Input
Amino acid sequence: MLACFWELCRWELARTFAARERGRRLLAFLVMPLLLFAISAPIIPAESVALLLPTGFGVFVLILFPFAALSSLLASAVAGERERGTLEVWLLAPVPDWMLALAKVVPYWLVGLLYDAALVSAATGVAALAGQPVPLRGLLLSLVFAASGSLTVMALQVSISAWAESTAVAQQFVVLLLLLPGLAAFAIEPVTRFLFRSLDSFPFFSFSLGAVSIMLLSIFIVLRAVRRDRLVLRCSQASNRSTRTRR
Output
């Protein structure tokens, strides 16, 4: 069962960097950090960029950029399978429904974590070369919060893809989901104060509890959305509509 789950994850990773899309995808992953540094350079010294990562702006960037680079793939995670006619084959995989759902989320989430790790490494490297202190504790906690936020946003996008009739419909919700990292940026400010002032701050505990709760809720939503019975029902409904349209 685990071997089949791993094969499903490998299939999604192969879609991420498929030969036809590899150049555009890698370009997006490389250009976005450069744009971030280029935009912030006139306002913020390069060596201070690492100091922004443990703030609301840093968490916003760590959630937004991976999701923006992978949003088209997330939108077509289930709806694209239906359009290509491969959904039935995918549903025949000998794994439980919850593994099917996680196989559509976990690979993209891991790619996003690698992207965030590269972004944080670049920022801390610039700061270290400039002789600036690097708040390692703050960076690690920002990565934890960004990881939970990325998982939340990506799980919601896959849920929308399972609900939508086509990839185009699922992509219309990307803009709405892009607002969630902005909300997380405002919510992270109590955590920022905790990082530099106190180890026993209640806002930190309350934010952590809220972040974990929202993440678990999003996982529950995607587990409910990506179910064989629901997807088969949607396929039959779409087939009936197309038959009536031809008549």
Remarks:
- The chain has one domain: 2-41+53-246.
- DSSP finds 14 helices and no strands in the chain.
- Residues 2-41+53-246 form one domain.
- Residues 71 and 174 are 7 Å apart (CA to CA).
